[in-house]
Amino acid sequence: MDKSFLNEEIVQALQSVYDPEIPVSIYELGLIYDINIDNKNNVKIDMTLTSPNCPVAESLPNEVKNSVKEIKEVKNVDLNLVWDPPWDKSMMTESAKLELNL
Predict the structure, then answer these.
(1) By C-alpha distance, which of 4, 67, 1 is closest to 32?
(2) How confident is the model at residue 53 (pLDDT cuts 50, 70, 90)?
């Protein structure tokens, strides 16, 4: 499978995961910093949360990991929670900003 096609599938999976406090997908919010796919279709994702004290700090990363694991071509998912750079509203897509009236 073409890596760009698999990357698109991963992005679609990430767009189905929503921050429970904000009615926007984590992808649109800019919480996904990096997606790497190796030659064996192992996926490494760097993501952050809106704050280190986020109430879903335990559950949201697992939800992200599980949504990507559901893609049959994906062998394994390694999710890395990062805090640098810290998330801020400028990382949101234009459509997310419009949806939240920012």
Answers:
(1) 67
(2) confident
Bond before 55 cis per omega within 30 degrees = no
pLDDT at 21: 80
At which residue do the structure tokens 């990430």 appear? Answer: 14
- What is this structure's pTM? 0.91
In order, the DSSP letters of the chain are --HHHHHHHHHHHHTT-B-TTSSSBHHHHT-EEEEEE-TT-EEEEEE--S-TT-TTTTHHHHHHHHHHHTSTT--EEEEEE--SSPP-GGGS-HHHHHHTT-
Tell whether the model's pLDDT for residue 82 goes beyond 90.
Answer: yes
Is residue 93 within 8 A of residue 22, CB to CB? The reply is no
